[in-house]
Amino acid sequence: MSSELVISDLHARIEEKPILKGVNLTVRPGTIHAIMGPNGSGKSTLAYTLMGHPGYTVTSGEVWYRGQNILELEPDERAKLGVFLAFQYPVSIPGVTVANFLRAAVNAHRAEAGKDPRSTAIPMAQFRKEIRGLMAELGIDEGFARRYLNEGFSGGEKKRVEILQMAMLKPMMAIMDETDSGLDIDALRVVAQGVNTLVAQQPEMGVLVITHYQRLLTYIKPHVVSVMMDGRIVREGGPELALELEARGYDFIREEVLSNAGK
C-alpha cells in the first residue's frame, strides 16, 4: 500500500469559479514538500480540497493515498487514514478547553466502525501523560490545556497548539496551509522547531508545506519546492528554487510560463 500522496489532474471550483486547473503533484513519505506561489494561485484551495472542505467542488481528477482515492472519502475518513490539515487561521471554540478538544480529537481518530467508542477511547492517564510530555517538548505551558481553544491566543500560540494537535494525532501526511501567516520571527522559529521535532520523531511522515515566502523554509528545510500559478504546478525543483524566488520574485516564472504557452 503506497503512502505517497499522488495528485493527478485535479480540478476544483468554488461555486462556479474554477480555481484548480489540473494539479499534478506527488508528496513522498519522509519528505518535506513545499508549495510556493503568489496570492490567488490556488494553494489554500488545494489544501482544503485535499481534506474535503464542503465549499470546494472537485470537477475532475484523483488523489491517491494508501491505496484509496481520498476524494471518495468523507473528511473524517481522510483523517483516520492519516491525513492532517493545519489551518492558516485556526478557529476559536469558546467553552471547549484545549485538553477536552484534543481528547475528543484523539478518540474520534481511534474510533472503529461497529465498536462502542468507549472501548477504543484513550485512557485518561495515558492521555494526560502524552499531552504533558508533548507540551513540554513544544514549549507550551501546561496551563494552556485548561484554556478555551484559541480564545485570546496570539497567532503564535494558536499555531503551537495546532502543532500539539498534530503531535497527538500522529498523522502520516501533514498538510500545513501557510503556517507562517501572521507570525513574527520568534513565533515562527518556535513553530518551525515544533514541526521539525515531529518530523524527527516520525521519519516516515510526509509534509506538504504551503507558503508565500522563503522565510518559513529557512527553519523547515524542504526536500522539494513546487511553484503554483493559476491553479497549476508550473515549476519544481530543490530547496535552491525557494531562494531564487526570494531573490527574484515570481515574475521570471510567469515569463517562463507565458513563453512555454506560446511555443
Question: Can you walk me through this structure?
Answer:
The chain has 263 residues and is an alpha/beta fold. It has a single domain (5-261), classed as P-loop containing nucleotide triphosphate hydrolases (Rossmann fold). Helix content is 40%, strand content 27%. It has ten helices and twelve strands. A hairpin with a 2-residue loop joins strand 1 (5-14) and strand 2 (17-27). The N and C termini lie far apart (40 Å). The model has no long low-confidence stretch (mean pLDDT 91).
Concise overview:
With 263 residues, the chain is an alpha/beta fold.
State the name of the first-level CATH class.
Alpha Beta
Overall shape: it is globular
The percentage helix is: 40-55%
Number of structural domains: 1
**Mean pLDDT over the full residue set:** 91
Low-pLDDT runs: none
Major beta-sheet overview: 6 strands, mixed
The CATH topology comes to Rossmann fold
Question: What name goes with the CATH superfamily?
Answer: P-loop containing nucleotide triphosphate hydrolases
Number of strands: 12
CA radius of gyration is 19 Å
| Category by helix and strand content | alpha/beta
**Tally of alpha and pi helices:** 10
SSE string, helix = H, strand = E? EEEHEEHEEHHHEHEHEHEEHH
By CATH, the architecture is named 3-Layer(aba) Sandwich
Instruction: Please report which band the strand proportion falls in: under 5%, 5-15%, 15-25%, 25-35%, 35-45% or over 45%.
Output: 25-35%
Order the strands across the largest sheet as they lie in space.
6-9-10-3-11-12
Terminal CA distance: 40 Å
